[in-house]
Specification:
With 291 residues, this protein is of the alpha/beta class. The chain contains 10 helices and 9 strands. Helix 4 packs across helix 5 and helix 4 runs antiparallel to helix 7 (156-169). Bound molecules: S-adenosylmethionine.
Length: 291
């Protein structure tokens, strides 16, 4: 393919200022820094662990595929692709419902309905209104257990404006529910893949308990690298999980470079400490690049 095919890999390079969903591990604040290390030219951008979509929306690729293994979240993004304003309606209905009584009681009703039947509409509102934006699931049965947060969820009008901004940036993207292996295997020569997997240790209880193996991710990255795909991987570097430092066995020569991205203090830890923040819990993500 001629290099012209890479022309205009992004729809815009304007920074993205507003967040749509709250999600554990949301990379919105570090998106510009992470993206500054991406190649300037690529064909299709793939994000197999897209979560709240902070990176794909900040990048605004001309061709993009966002995927997540957590079904209600992936359904939410699919709905966004098909009719983004239906998310405004979902949000408005639940926001208004919470105005009609004591917010905590109303919130608990929405949470109970979600737990009975996990669905994207309730997940959207819970993500915006739960404590610390930490949508947390019980390991045994996937029960979403986070209580209501002390903040006021944003007004539906502001949420609708955010949806419009995000839609413009993601107008050329497709969204799928898929395991990371399927998504990465789609990428071909000239494509770019950004991976932000669950933190190897501490995030196993989150995200609805999908299976995730770092070794399988390394295998997948190795295969796609051989096909000519460029891969960027965020990994938790200096973070302590519980009492021990995370140690990861990264295969030698899989990556060419390693950079450090300062991610500030750990949100998850803050949540576990009931809002007390710990200065020592500084998280620095490693960014590993195959090029
Ligand atoms: C650290 S979060 C990604 C956060 C994202 N960068 C953001 O800014 O919101 C990891 C994501 O991986 C997803 N995930 C976990 N296991 C997965 C799997 N096996 N395949 C695909 N996605 C998976 C989770 O549902 C979660 O949304």
């Amino acid at each position: 393919m001629s290099s012209n095919n890479f022309y205009g890999s992004r729809l815009t390079t304007e920074p993205l200022k507003v967040q749509l969903l709250k999600w554990v591990g949301n990379k919105q604040r570090f998106a510009a820094e992470i993206i500054s290390h991406f190649p300037k030219k690529f064909h299709t951008f793939y994000e197999p662990f897209m979560g709240s979509g902070a990176i794909i929306a900040s990048l605004a690729p001309r061709h993009g595929v966002g995927a997540d293994g957590f079904q209600p979240l992936a359904q939410l993004w699919k709905q966004f692709e098909n009719n983004h304003l239906s998310l405004a309606k979902w949000y408005q209905e639940r926001w208004s419902f919470c105005q009609k009584g004591e917010a905590k009681t109303q919130y608990e009703q929405i949470k109970a309905r979600y737990n009975k039947n996990p669905n994207p509409a309730d997940l959207l509102f819970l993500s915006r209104s739960c404590y610390g934006g930490v949508v947390r699931f019980r390991k045994t049965d996937g029960y979403m257990s986070t209580p209501i947060g002390p903040h006021k969820p944003i007004h539906p009008d502001s949420f609708t404006k955010r949806l419009d901004v995000w839609k413009q940036r993601l107008s050329s993207c497709k969204f799928v529910h898929a395991d990371f292996r399927e998504t990465i295997d789609l990428a071909d020569r000239g494509d770019l893949v950004y991976c932000d997997p669950p933190y190897a240790d501490s995030q196993k209880i989150l995200y609805g308990a999908q299976t995730f193996s770092l070794d399988e991710l390394f295998d997948c990255i190795n295969r796609s690298k051989k096909r000519g795909v460029k891969i960027v991987l965020s990994l938790d570097g200096s973070k302590k999980s519980g009492k021990h430092q995370c140690r990861l066995n990264i295969p030698k020569s899989l990556f060419k470079r390693q950079l450090s991205i300062n991610c500030g203090r750990s949100m998850l830890k803050r949540f576990q400490m009931h809002g007390l923040s710990l200065e020592k819990e500084v998280v620095a993500d490693r960014l590993l690049l195959t090029y």
